[in-house]
Amino acid sequence: MRTVLTIGRNLAVLGYVLFALFPLYWLLKIAVTPDRLIYTEGTALWPTTFTFDNFRTVIFYSDFMVFFSNSVIVSLCSAALATLIAAAAGYSFSRFRFRGKSIIVVLMLVTQMFPLLMIITPIYKIVATLGLLNTLTSLIVVYTAFNIPFATFLMQSFFDGIPKDLDEAAMMDGCTRLQALRKVILPLTLPGLAATLGFVFTAAWSELLFALMLINSNDSMTFPVGLLTFVSKFSVDWGQMMAAGVLALLPSCLFFVFIQRYLVQGLTAGAVKG
Amino acid sequence: MNTAVTPAVATPGSRRSWRAVLRTAAEPWLYLSPALIFIMLVMLVPLVIGISYAFQAISLMNPLESGWVGLANFEALYEDRKFWKSLKNTAYWTIASVFFQFFLGLGLALLLNHGFYGRRLVQALVFLPWAVPTFLSALTWAWLFNPVIGPLPHWLAAIGILSEPYNILSDPNIAIWGPIVANIWFGIPFFAITLLAALQSIPHDLYEAAAIDGASAWQGFIKITLPFLAPMIAITVMLRAIWVANFADLIFVMTGGGPANSTQIISTYIFTTAFRKLDFGYASAIAVVLLVLLLIYAAVLLRLRQSLRLVN
């Protein structure tokens, strides 16, 4: 009975692992299948020969590097801005008690609940009026704002993990609050800052709908928009599309490997939002 | 300002302390202000403007016919069969997705909580879909369902679900299951992560005590695990349902709402109306209806929570 149970359990685990990995394996498989073989063995489980031609074409002979660098710029700037702003706000939530705090907390929670698509038309109009359509700036500002509430709660939970005695002791010793923050608290929250940075980066990296709305010139497309446009234009270049897909996957996977160990403990603090 | 409030007889010392009080009161707001400014300007102001759009005719296709139209957008919405269909699809999509995400996520969390050789590696692998950008999950699954380069139609035909290997995303009767499967794949890790964290917070002695009293593993699950998990389950399922109902990316990329609107949900309908038809007034009217529905949902939830508390 016991062994049956163990075997059943292992099979179930195996099932989950296969389900999770199969689509990614397939992406990689088609990306390395030579073009001439796609139609004959497109659905075979294993390619008979493989090639990196698709990656070469995508990297050197297409617009994807432009999309890639646009996405890196947008994601990095949004992540840096949002983390900085959220760190200040999270610090305020963690260290002060003040009138109106609960209202602000509720306000931030509400922004997490209402459908962001509600504001896609006014945002478009405002951005158009400011003459910022087709600029990366508009995306950076929008993504920063969207991610501030979640990042603030995340940063607050990291600050809460640092005993208040530490800043009080530093202020006792003659530091101002800002000095205490800079010299004592911030070094201790570096992992928290890094995690927040990563979360905003990945969120900005994968955002599609606002980028579609606000950007339509090739030069300022981010990766998701570029890939989708490519798909609807050249929907037979399977190998290249999937090679581009693998490239889009890289930054998120790097970040994932990095936060893996915090995942269960650290994420629950703000896990309500996916 | 300060001097006007401070009594004329006050010593300089007390005046300074007044300032200190003011400074202490302002300090938390100082740290909060950049966040508040961003949220105000990029989210709340557009929200109000967006609601006002619902009562106007704003279409970039015919910019001349713009202006206030009262409830005309909502009247058109009431007559719109596409809208009612997408409302029904939203319910179907949300319930089916959350149902499978939750039960498969719970199963995974229980397996991972058990502990076995190589657990850390397995955990990293099964949580990986969560890290995949949504547009890429959508494209990958769309490709998997494509009979030219994807194996799924052939497998489904082999086990008799499909009569021949064709793309289910182009069959109006079952197309919605394409995005639902992708959503399940993408959402299992979320439930597994939150439920695993909750499972790990259950004190171990409870199970030991139950085992000494002769309880079976199943009894332990029903009497200890479930009651402990219940609050976490209720909160995550309800919030997740909102999130999934609003989640347009997968459907938009995989089917664009088609074929024949069979996969159109409210949020994709908003997006396609704004993005393809550039009819901002009508898109905003749909969005306002969605907002009202969500508010009702939230109110019902709060009510339920209160009455549950009373029972307990």
Report on this model:
The complex is a heterodimer of chains A (274) and B (312). Chain A is mainly α and 274 residues long. Chain A has one domain: Orthogonal Bundle (MetI-like fold). Helices cover 75% and strands 0% of the residues of chain A. In chain A, helix 3 (53-60) crosses helix 13 (238-259) and helix 7 (136-160) runs antiparallel to helix 10 (190-206). By secondary structure, chain B is mainly alpha-helical. Chain B has 13 helices and two strands, in the order ααββααααααααααα. Chain B has a two-stranded antiparallel ribbon. In chain B, helix 2 crosses helix 13 and helix 8 packs across helix 10. The two termini of chain B are 53 Å apart. Chains A and B meet through helix 1, helix 4, helix 5, helix 6 and helix 7 of A and helix 2, helix 4, helix 5, helix 6 and helix 8 of B.
Helical region count of chain B?
Answer: 13
- Portion of residues in beta strands of chain B equals under 5%
CATH level 3 topology of chain A: MetI-like fold
Q: Helix amount of chain A, in percent?
A: over 70%
Number of helices of chain A: 14
Task: Report the CATH superfamily of chain A.
Answer: MetI-like
Name the structural class of chain A.
mainly alpha
| Quaternary structure of the protein | heterodimer
* Helix and strand run of chain B: HHEEHHHHHHHHHHH
How many domain modules of chain A? 1
Most extensive protein-chain contact, per-chain counts: A-B, 89 and 91 residues
CATH-level-2 architecture of chain A: Orthogonal Bundle
Could you list the spans of chain B in which at least 5 consecutive residues all have pLDDT below 50?
1-11
Distance between the termini of chain A: 39 Å
Largest sheet of chain B: 2 strands, antiparallel
* Low-pLDDT ranges of chain A: 266-274
Level of helix content of chain B?
over 70%
